[in-house]
Amino acid sequence: MANCNDQTGNETTGLSNQLNDYCQMIESEVIIIGGGPAGSTCAWKLKQHNIKTIILDKKTFPRLKLCAGWITPKVIKDLQFKIEEYPHSFLIFNKLYFHFYGRKFPIKTRQYSIRRYEFDHWLVQRAGVPLYHHTANQIHKANDRYIIDDKFRCKYLVGAGGTNCPVYRTFFKEINPRVRDSLITTMEEEFVYNYHDKNCYLWFFDNNFPGYSWYVPKANGYLNVGIGGKFSVLKDKKTTIKEHWNLFVRKLNKYGLVVNYSFQPRGCNYYLHQKMKVSQLDNLFIIGDSAGLATIDMGEGIGSAIKSGILAAKAIINKNIYCPDLVTKYSFINILFPWWTK
Ligand SMILES: Cc1cc2nc3c(=O)[nH]c(=O)nc-3n(C[C@H](O)[C@H](O)[C@H](O)COP(=O)(O)OP(=O)(O)OC[C@H]3O[C@@H](n4cnc5c(N)ncnc54)[C@H](O)[C@@H]3O)c2cc1C
Fold first, then answer.
1. Which of 37, 72, 244, 293 has the CB geometry, 3.0–4.6 Å to 304, for a possible disulfide?
2. Are 86 and 135 in the same domain?
């Protein structure tokens, strides 16, 4: 709790009540809204530099996050951990099987799969900062502090609340409207499945779908399958993601990859990397999906979330400018040359 006392001694005046409310607020140098990979990584970096930080998240962890859970060597490098240290499901792929218009291209690489349910929980625990279960709604600035729902206040506020982040909505939306063409719509399901094929498959542009579908096995008997593509193109073609999902399920069945399973997929939208005019305003920052940073070619957003979290933390620590333009915009080059990770 904020450590301050009402100096007036008069509990009944409006001013006194306001002061009292102010004193009741939880104060931190930095508040991060959202404990996904972007927020937890930013908190982890700040904590390493002894900067008082808290995270607010509307969900309790571990929480469900729709995601294929494919991560790259760069994610591991940026998070500075050894694979042996990771305590949960972790699978290594030495090849990815790309399919373009029905033709198969096995590509030698080194990539990984995790389960977001476990990975995000681990990251937020590893950050080692207090995590409050709170849905952030109203944010305003008073003097040089940001006030969140009249309950929390801070000097630096980091928006890591994903696509609908309230920091983006309140402060950045008008100056940085998102580009319709960058919106990706998805359907996916992660489930326990006794899969026989341990490979990772990606199918691009099947049935003129403006995106790709995936089959990503996980350790400990989990499988993630899904489909994600450009919303605007689907709309212009008067087709839906659901129609393409149905075709995809038929394909999984035809190739014997998933048989006799009754799917209950879920959908979720997010934005690909777009030119941001502003991602820092005074002591306000947006990172990860809140800033719309997933790669343009593959919609890879975990790595971008982590990198932007580190960049924002460094800007706070060193009191310099946050520049998310340094976040990788394309995945393909890193898949072809996984050892060449900056
Ligand atoms: C179907 C699908 C598959 C994907 N597959 C991959 C993949 O395989 N590899 C990859 O790299 N990327 C993938 N992505 C993209 C990736 O999931 C995201 O880019 C990544 O999760 C972004 O991380 P983040 O921390 O910015 O946001 P999130 O992970 O979305 O975390 C945001 C957090 O903010 C919290 N929050 C939101 N609003 C509030 C609020 N008002 N108050 C408090 N808390 C709030 C949420 O509860 C959440 O915990 C996929 C995305 C989808 C939809």
1. 293
2. no
Same-domain check for residues 187 and 248: yes
Residues 260 and 131 in one domain: no
Pocket test for ligand 1, best of 59, 154, 285, 302 (most atoms within 8 A of CB): 302
pTM reported for the whole predicted model: 0.94
Question: Domain containing 295: what range?
Answer: 14-64+117-177+273-326
Q: How far apart are CA 135 and CA 33, in angstroms?
A: 9
In the chain, the amino acid numbered 37 is: P
Nearest to 273 by CA among 185, 175, 182: 182
Nearest atom (ligand 1) to Cα of 226: 1
pLDDT tens digit string along 35-59?
Answer: 999 999 999 999 999 999 999 999 9
Helix ranges (DSSP H) in the chain: 14-24, 37-48, 73-79, 116-127, 166-167, 231-236, 241-254, 302-318, 332-336
**Euclidean distance between CA atoms 297 and 341, whole angstroms:** 17
With b for 16 or more beta-carbon neighbours within 10 A and e for fewer, the 52-77 pattern comes to: ebbbbbeeebbeebbbbbbbbbbbbe
Tell whether 3 is covered by a domain: no
Give per-residue pLDDT as tens, 163-195.
999 999 999 999 999 999 999 999 999 999 999
Q: Do 100 and 139 share a domain, yes or no?
A: no
